Amino acid sequence: MNFKKFSAALATAAAALPLSAMAHVGADGGGHHGFLSSFGHAFAHPFTGADHMAAMLAVGAWSALTVTPAWRAPAAFVALLVAGALAGFAGLWVPGVEPMIAASVLVLGLLVAVQKQMPWVLAAALAGVFAFFHGAAHGFELAADSALASAGALAGMALGSALLHVGGMVLGKALMQRHRWLAKLAGGATAVLGAAMLTRLA
């Protein structure tokens, strides 16, 4: 598959995100005891639900379209995602996780659709706030029963999330900068998903 076809496939997948299943199905704790098994499960976890995947792709695409340098907001997202996951692993109750995740999908989708520009410091701060709540949800779902398993889960989740950011940045650079309607379509679809999530929680 050449680069253009790969990018088009990613864009199609991003636009179809509202048709995907949600990731939050409850705690997974204790089912993955080794480093490698925890790593593999956590690596796949960000790809298993539309909410996490949409937010991470949106951060990457929005950063590629509007933030300079583009890597800082995704980096902040991964860092605060890990911080939130550590809180979840520790059993810390974080209020408003599900509404904040839904709000992040809505807001980030709108930012992609309108291609809102802001200084990288503000973009990184916004991405980081949302990421903490995503991380807390991940941490609760992936809570492990050993330090080694927890380390594997953190590493896998961070890598999987970073790859989604890179995918979003590829979409932004390769397609959305050239075809602005794709940004509006993918961002609008992501925002609709976030609105539907908020409605479901109401």
UniProtKB/TrEMBL annotation:
Report the superkingdom from the record.
Bacteria
Q: Enumerate the UniProt keywords alphabetically.
A: Membrane, Signal, Transmembrane, Transmembrane helix
* Signal peptide interval: 1-23
TM stretches of this protein: 47-68, 75-93, 99-114, 121-140, 146-169, 181-199
Record-given protein name: HupE/UreJ family protein
